[in-house]
Amino acid sequence: MITAARVRKKLGWADIAGEIDAPLVWCVAALLGQHPMPAGQAERVCALLDLDSAVAESLQSQPSRGIDPALLADPTIYRFQEALAVYGPALKELIHEEFGDGIMSAINFKVDIARREHPDGDRVVVTFDGKFLDYRW
User: Fold this and answer.
1) Residue 31's closest CA among 41, 132, 84, 114?
2) pTM of the full predicted structure?
3) What residues act catalytically?
4) Strand, coil or helix: what is 114?
5) Given CB 3.0 to 4.6 Å as the disulfide criterion, which of 34, 42, 70, 84 pairs with 56?
6) Residues in the active site (predicted)?
């Protein structure tokens, strides 16, 4: 419903994120059901998109996070999996070398996306910014 309303209203995701004063990627993830949205933001989104209070209520619900296995075949999502399959072990080694024994949080976490012009074709720049969590024994 949200995606259809957004398209019908000719709004970009950034328009909606700006309207509710939320980080772009977080906003889209929330509107796709991956984060609960505070009441005020949910109500503003629904007013912007002409959606009823039942949608605002559902946007505030605690989600079951994850991804539908069928979506894993989507080419864009699959490329992220492929990139982590290839570079994940190297990133893990570099994190351990730089920070020690621990992990990058996906809870205390921000993600951003940007476009960078390049003569070979524009580049997609994805930034993961997660707190380092050291293992404590």
Assistant:
1) 41
2) 0.82
3) 79, 82, 105
4) strand
5) 42
6) 79, 82, 105
